[in-house]
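Please, is this right?
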Amino acid sequence: MKSPIHLSASKIDTFYNCPRLYQYKYVLNLKEPPKKSFLIGNVTHSALEYFHKSYVNKKTSKAVMGSAFKKSMSEYKSKAPGLDKNDIMTIKGMLQDYLYYLSPRSEPKVIGTEKYFKIQLGDGISMGGKIDRIDRYGDKLYIVDYKTSFAVYSRKEMAASTQLVIYAHWAQQEFNVKEIYGVYIFLKHVLNGGVQKMLIDSDPDSLKSKCEAIRDRVESDDFPKNKSFRWCGKKYCSFYDRCVKEK
């Protein structure tokens, strides 16, 4: 009998990018030192969550965004000292650009923010995650994901996203809609074409196959290194030194 396994988009992507990194993070549960980029992302996501909760209540203004930013910074106060003035300006710049992006457009019909979910794929496989924002327009659902990195995904990369497939699978079970769209908002490029939208299919069979393959490899303790992974290096990987020493 197969062991139960709980996966997420980040776990699946980590495994297929580098099985050894998956082992370090999710099997051995080794802790990574906090990364500033993650903190910037967390503060920004939190501010947008607070903003859109007010946005739904028709309280839209720069003051509301400013209040959301302060509330978010307060929430992360214990970690915020790791952010310098340039980081704060980066966050404020992304939030300001996002406001400019919204201003000429009609209000998004937000029905949820920072939505946690869990789904069962059968045979002891479950998946979970958190969706940044959900908008609904009649029979169409838009699953919005904010990105705070400099990189902008191509449509090919977006189409191959495990994250969007998982979100769509959950949404099809949760909502009675005909079409589900994935929306990536690249906040550092939001005023320069940094918003991508694509119709997505849940494809549960392919998703389950991926999860079963990971479970088989985990049970057989099969975690080879992937030296060709583009983020393999001391600059990017917290476990690089350990990995180099091991076979």
Residues 225 and 246 are 10 Å apart (CA to CA). The chain has two domains: 5-105+210-245, 110-207.
